[in-house]
Design goal:
This protein is α+β, with helices and mostly antiparallel strands and 693 residues long. The protein contains 15 helices and 32 strands. The strands form 7 sheets. Strands 1, 4, 6, 7, 12, 13 and 14 form a 7-stranded mixed β-sheet that branches. β16 (187-189) and β17 form a beta hairpin. α2 (213-228) packs parallel to α3 (257-272) and α7 (348-358) crosses α8. The radius of gyration is 27 Å and the shape is globular.
């Protein structure tokens, strides 16, 4: 007879540091004490879980089995491997009120707590080292069946219990459209259909070398700052220098338990702060040119004595262990609606080693990677049933593959198309918009600029000015991407120098805008044939019924190189090629000082040597810009908003005008003064209904 467990409250005593040994729980005690299940979270009401919130169940297995597991954790070669589902597999089938069934796998778990003073994790205690995590997406009673299989044999009958899922304020999963039209440009919340407009940057791996308790706390602080200032999105690396389970030992993940525990805290914080994120794997796993964790330390390469890179993708036994690792990753974190994307970063750097060391053609090397990558994504979505995860890969160089071959490229089987772009020239944002347009027209999928900013050689510019950060987030937000482009290499500076407050006006600008249903199309405009000559540039989104425009208007001469005119720091950098003072961050990291030639023509515009920024209220009379494609001879209202003057939770309006379009549907708009104080404005254009000219 199957054992059905009812819910009862227990009052327990916990140590000062530990909340793991004896949780507040429902106690599931089999008559022979072989298996016990306890309720860990949520703690407020046992037996009740809010929709999309985390349910965590702890489980203990028979003592003899646990002893064999501990033997393996110590030796890696005898006993029962808790990371190999052929040796022990714990799973739970959750039956929703609608009858839908979802299986979540259990995972082996070791709790820790932080010793911040000594920057180390201290191993905590638990009587329930197996955990099952789940997030309900329906309201009503869930019935759960938990099964334990050891070496192919089921341990007793499944354990049954139930809980109630109640309504919550969380908006749930992020999804993409599949209509093949402009509605697919943007992401939306699955339940409400409301637009999810991505605002944020890379918060990748805290201290760039090794995750520690201090950098973990710092990382969490960054997430809070991002959320409190309008951000809702970030990108997180899962790598050998942090919580990648199989990096040290592909069979035994125990040495990574402390870092994975820190990731638990990070991901819980993301959910609590209403932040969604990309979880990505980096090319350093196969890199052989000087990264801290790279091919020379790859556990598969060393354990299987691989002689070439292609074996990493084609060896069947390695493939099986890689799947076990994915099984663990998604058992531990895949329940969380905040984990919106999973993918591999700069995959051409996965591919190049095969070309450079094995004499493979680009086509053959790409095919090897594609076959492996597609199987990974299919395993996540079909076998592991994480169907809500969006897949996303990116290339390091936009010139390394064919954007325009939908039937032959890796991008054909991905949910979202991403690219990386590092530019220092004035035309950076203009070209990002062009590339976005090419990708959209080719693939009709959401586009995300996963990395942008300056290369390492020019990072000292960020020590002087936030101009590039400000300009690039506004420009990319209005060029047809899913949201803002995501800055890389600069999460320290974004937070240490307070750049993150610049998201507030952008978030306020897009608040309540329905980008999904009104089919917005991007449009660019500049007042010169060449961007180096331009003094005005605009990035706009125009909806399909020609009644509304969202845009950003910019004094095109107001970019980082021209800040020489008012920034002593940039004057020093321009004149000497590097800064005398150390640009150091809160955690002690120093931005590298690399002498550069800031007098190069390629990074100047036509106004650089004339004092820099053109102040329109002094130098240009009656500036205007043009919007095309609106309704002919109709009256429109134009509202201009300040972008640099931050007032929390509201936009500051500068000016409202009403102007009619010409017979060709063009709207010529007078511009407010653009100077050093207000070099740019956000603007919104709306049709005045009932008025015709």
């Amino acid at each position: 007879m199957k054992s059905f467990v009812t819910i009862v409250f227990l009052i327990v005593h916990c140590s000062l540091f530990s909340q793991n040994a004896l949780p507040q729980s429902i106690s599931f005690v089999k008559n022979n004490n072989q298996i016990r299940l306890v309720w860990y979270t949520p703690t407020e009401h046992v037996g009740i879980v809010k929709k999309y919130h985390k349910l965590e169940i702890g489980l203990s297995v028979p003592r003899g089995v646990e002893n064999e597991i501990r033997a393996f954790l110590q030796t890696s070669n005898r006993g029962i491997n808790p990371f190999n589902p052929n040796e022990i597999a714990i799973s739970a089938v959750f039956t929703a009120p609608s009858g839908k069934k979802e299986q979540m796998n259990g995972f082996y778990y070791q709790p820790f707590y932080r010793d911040v003073e000594n920057n180390q994790w201290i191993q905590d205690t638990t009587n329930f080292p197996w955990r099952i995590r789940f997030s309900p997406d329906e309201i009503g009673q869930y019935n759960v069946s938990v099964n334990v299989v050891v070496r192919g044999q089921q341990v007793e009958e499944p354990i049954l219990f139930s809980f109630d899922a109640i309504e919550s304020e969380h908006k749930g999963y992020i999804v993409k459209g599949n209509k093949g039209d402009e509605t697919d440009r943007y992401l939306r919340y699955r339940d409400s259909g409301e637009t999810f407009f991505c605002i944020g940057h890379n918060i990748s791996h805290s201290d760039y070398v090794q995750l520690t308790p201090k950098s973990g706390l710092r990382h969490i602080q960054w997430l809070k700052e991002l959320s409190e200032n309008g951000g809702n999105f970030f990108r997180l690396e899962l790598g050998g220098q942090n919580a990648l389970p199989d990096w040290d030992n592909y069979k035994n993940y125990f040495s990574k338990m402390d870092e994975m525990w820190e990731y638990d805290q990070l991901i819980d914080t993301a959910f609590a702060m209403n932040l969604y994120f990309i979880l990505f794997r980096h090319h350093v796993e196969l890199n052989y040119k000087g990264w801290p964790e790279n091919w020379s330390e790859n556990p598969y390469k060393n354990s299987f004595q691989l002689m070439n890179f292609s074996s990493y993708f084609t060896n069947n036994e390695i493939d099986q262990w890689q799947r076990y690792c994915l099984r663990y990753i998604f058992a531990r974190w895949g329940y969380n609606p905040s984990l919106a994307f999973y993918g591999y970063s700069e995959v051409d750097n996965f591919i190049k080693p095969m070309m450079e060391t094995e004499s493979k053609t680009y086509k053959d090397a790409l095919q090897i990677f594609e076959d492996w990558n597609k199987n990974q994504f299919n395993y996540i979505k079909d076998t592991l049933q994480n169907k809500h995860i969006l897949t996303l890969n990116t290339y390091a160089s936009i010139n390394d593959f064919d954007f325009k071959k939908p039937d032959k490229s890796m991008l054909s089987y991905l949910d979202v198309v991403g690219f990386h772009t590092y530019k220092i020239k004035k035309d950076a944002n203009w070209n990002r918009a062009k590339l976005t347009d090419i990708l959209w027209k080719t693939w009709k999928k959401p586009i995300v600029i996963e990395e942008m900013g300056f290369t390492d050689d020019y990072l000292e510019v960020y020590c002087c000015t936030d101009i590039d950060f400000h300009n690039s987030i506004w420009a990319t937000a209005l060029n047809g991407n899913v949201g803002t482009g995501m800055h890389w290499w600069w999460d320290r500076g974004v937070h240490d120098f307070g750049f993150y407050i610049l998201y507030q006006n952008l978030a306020n600008f897009f608040k309540g805008e329905d980008l999904v249903n009104y089919k917005y199309t991007p449009q660019q405009w500049k007042n010169a044939s060449n961007i180096k000559k331009a003094t005005i540039e605009t990035f706009m989104l125009i909806n399909s019924n020609q009644e509304r425009v969202l845009g950003w208007l910019h004094n095109a001469t107001f970019y980082w190189r021209n800040s020489y005119a008012f920034s002593p720091c940039m004057q020093e950098l321009t004149e000497t090629g590097q800064l005398k003072f150390q640009c150091d961050m809160e955690d002690g990291y120093i931005i590298p000082s690399k002498k550069q030639n800031y007098q190069e023509d390629r990074i100047k515009d036509n106004y650089t040597e004339r004092g820099g920024i053109v102040q329109f209220n002094q130098g240009i009379r009656n500036p205007t810009f043009t919007i095309s494609g609106l309704k002919k001879k109709r009256l429109y209202r134009i509202e201009f908003y300040k972008t640099g003057y931050v007032v929390r939770n509201q936009l500051v309006k500068e000016l409202t005008q009403q102007i009619s379009t010409k017979a060709n549907g063009k709207l010529v708009v007078p511009i407010p003064d653009l100077d050093v104080i207000h070099p740019d404005y956000g603007f919104k254009v709306s049709l005045v209904h009932g008025v015709e000219w």
